[in-house]
């Protein structure tokens, strides 16, 4: 079937509008991504990348302890951060949704977001002021006589986890709150009519109904946490590196692009697996 | 019993808010520290660290660079996003689902991967790293967001008004510029300001794709190498103040307009 001249002109116009964005994404995202995927299967000699196809980088990832451990540490920290953040955020979201008067709820949420309007790098740095050996927490505890020696709160896993939890408590409070205020009070009335006590109502009715909010927040936490370089680099010290730190290390000292590319793709596969695991809840949120 | 749970709720919320506010309060408080270490005890109050950062040429240059990159890259992302949204909302393109997927794809990939990919391709072409390359990276990050926000607000109700304009003899560019864009202004502005804040705060891409001219987060990053430094507190507090002012302006203008 041949299109009329008018239809062809219209189609040409449509392409002209869509093409700049498509070309930009194609040139500066798709092509680099494909090239990076390719060099993850190449090797390097000195500082040069050599295009010989090999699985060496991926084999090295599973065989060399210092590379594989990056993923293990990342997963452990991310899991801890996700669980702690959910446990801390849920009660806060519930208090804001149930106990704070309606007209103050928006204000309560804005106040929860406010401290995150510093620069990301500065935020991690300011935790250093709080957690380091001479920092606020240690000084306060020493002064109160609770401890005799400063606690090791930064330059280790504890520092990284506290820095992450800080941000994700806020994020999860938002997603869980958004879910909680959508619940009709009728659910709770029905549960009470049927003889459920407060705990049973929460555990069997409210909690399952807010699972989408929890899972959306948990997914975002997982993705943003496992891909982050700044917080662990500033607060985590150099003893236990997470995967993004290992990737940056390949670039900096060793200029090993193929290895860095391979590790990045490993990171992407992990995130994709997390997406598949959470997809059920993420879809529910959208409808 | 009721009073007890209310008191417990208030206590819990108070503790979490304390946790959320603690670092920023400490940051701002010790930016006035009269001494070289921004940790307790507070020796006295001084403004000399603010003087120090405002007379620091490198830092102020980085601040200017950040503003330029944020504004230009957000403007480019908004224009590209608007044109693409117009194309997908007003015309039928083949494989439109797939193409829309391509435009939003960078949103699903971590910025580390976007930066690494761009860096390896730039190495290949021999193009020098500069603020332009940082800007290119930031457009890649922000374009999906701008496209998604503007596309979502392009409803069918504007089509009739556009048709009326065409009937009255408006050309395509006139319809787009004088009819469609003003109608969508709230969402275009929202997309623009959101992009500006993301670009302003973005570190990884800016770090990987810049060399001599750097943006503010990268400059602050290099300041961290000297450890705890009240100058870092001061610049951090300035950024915080500017961002909060920005947030208040946005709340009062863009989002208020959108709500009404």
From TrEMBL, chain A:
<feature type="transmembrane region" description="Helical">
    <location>
        <begin position="21"/>
        <end position="42"/>
    </location>
</feature>
<feature type="transmembrane region" description="Helical">
    <location>
        <begin position="104"/>
        <end position="122"/>
    </location>
</feature>
<feature type="transmembrane region" description="Helical">
    <location>
        <begin position="201"/>
        <end position="226"/>
    </location>
</feature>
<keyword id="KW-0472">Membrane</keyword>
<feature type="transmembrane region" description="Helical">
    <location>
        <begin position="257"/>
        <end position="282"/>
    </location>
</feature>
<keyword id="KW-0813">Transport</keyword>
<keyword id="KW-1003">Cell membrane</keyword>
<protein>
    <submittedName>
        <fullName>ABC transporter permease</fullName>
    </submittedName>
</protein>
<dbReference type="InterPro" id="IPR000515">
    <property type="entry name" value="MetI-like"/>
</dbReference>
<dbReference type="InterPro" id="IPR035906">
    <property type="entry name" value="MetI-like_sf"/>
</dbReference>
<dbReference type="Pfam" id="PF00528">
    <property type="entry name" value="BPD_transp_1"/>
</dbReference>
<feature type="domain" description="ABC transmembrane type-1">
    <location>
        <begin position="71"/>
        <end position="278"/>
    </location>
</feature>
<comment type="similarity">
    <text>Belongs to the binding-protein-dependent transport system permease family. CysTW subfamily.</text>
</comment>
<keyword id="KW-0812">Transmembrane</keyword>
<feature type="transmembrane region" description="Helical">
    <location>
        <begin position="160"/>
        <end position="181"/>
    </location>
</feature>
<feature type="transmembrane region" description="Helical">
    <location>
        <begin position="77"/>
        <end position="97"/>
    </location>
</feature>
<keyword id="KW-1133">Transmembrane helix</keyword>
From TrEMBL, chain B:
<feature type="domain" description="ABC transmembrane type-1">
    <location>
        <begin position="63"/>
        <end position="250"/>
    </location>
</feature>
<keyword id="KW-1133">Transmembrane helix</keyword>
<protein>
    <submittedName>
        <fullName>ABC transporter permease</fullName>
    </submittedName>
</protein>
<keyword id="KW-0812">Transmembrane</keyword>
<keyword id="KW-1003">Cell membrane</keyword>
<keyword id="KW-0813">Transport</keyword>
<feature type="transmembrane region" description="Helical">
    <location>
        <begin position="7"/>
        <end position="32"/>
    </location>
</feature>
<feature type="transmembrane region" description="Helical">
    <location>
        <begin position="134"/>
        <end position="154"/>
    </location>
</feature>
<dbReference type="InterPro" id="IPR000515">
    <property type="entry name" value="MetI-like"/>
</dbReference>
<feature type="transmembrane region" description="Helical">
    <location>
        <begin position="234"/>
        <end position="255"/>
    </location>
</feature>
<dbReference type="InterPro" id="IPR051789">
    <property type="entry name" value="Bact_Polyamine_Transport"/>
</dbReference>
<feature type="transmembrane region" description="Helical">
    <location>
        <begin position="101"/>
        <end position="122"/>
    </location>
</feature>
<comment type="similarity">
    <text>Belongs to the binding-protein-dependent transport system permease family. CysTW subfamily.</text>
</comment>
<feature type="transmembrane region" description="Helical">
    <location>
        <begin position="175"/>
        <end position="200"/>
    </location>
</feature>
<keyword id="KW-0472">Membrane</keyword>
<feature type="transmembrane region" description="Helical">
    <location>
        <begin position="67"/>
        <end position="89"/>
    </location>
</feature>
<dbReference type="Pfam" id="PF00528">
    <property type="entry name" value="BPD_transp_1"/>
</dbReference>
<dbReference type="InterPro" id="IPR035906">
    <property type="entry name" value="MetI-like_sf"/>
</dbReference>
